[in-house]
Design brief:
Elements: H1 6-24, H2 32-44, H3 49-56, H4 60-72, E1 76-80, E2 88-92, H5 94-118, H6 121-138
Antiparallel strand pairs: 1-2
Helix pairs in contact: 3-4
Length: 140
């Protein structure tokens, strides 16, 4: 079997994944930074703005703006920090969970439809195997 140029494959994979993500998005979806914050709060539980900024690798000021937008939409709620009265702990609201679930379902539905209509059964099996490999890389 021919040797694979991992740099070329990595470059192409990054481009293709980016295109897939953009194609699955809808105009009514939350902007990516907002959806990412909801995802972190949903998966990891309550956090401070500083912790969210660290997770997203953005400046505190940028995260504060995103947090303000999500709070105004009623998708997250500020509350007291249990051990430091100077800090605010942010939690996802029921409305935030519903919005996140709706976007995830819509995107997964779009992708499932595309796979069903564009790929043969063997190609779908091949893609399923590739997902396991990508998961291994993501967990590295």
């Amino acid at each position: 079997m021919d040797e694979v140029d991992v740099n070329e494959v990595a470059h192409e994979l990054r481009l293709v994944v980016g295109r897939l993500v953009r194609r699955a998005r809808r105009p009514e979806d939350l902007p990516t930074p907002q959806a990412a914050v909801l995802g972190h709060l949903d998966r990891e539980g309550a956090m401070t703005t500083a912790e969210l900024a660290d997770r997203q690798r953005v400046r505190h000021q940028s995260m504060a703006r995103t947090v303000g937008q999500l709070t105004a939409l009623g998708l997250i709620a500020p509350g007291p920090h249990p051990s430091d009265a100077r800090k605010t702990l942010l939690t996802i609201t029921d409305a935030g969970r519903a919005e996140l679930r709706s976007q995830r379902t819509r995107r997964a539905g779009w992708l499932a439809e595309a796979m069903a209509s564009e790929l043969s059964p063997e190609e779908r099996r091949e893609l399923a195997r590739a997902v396991a490999l990508l998961a291994r890389l993501a967990d590295r």
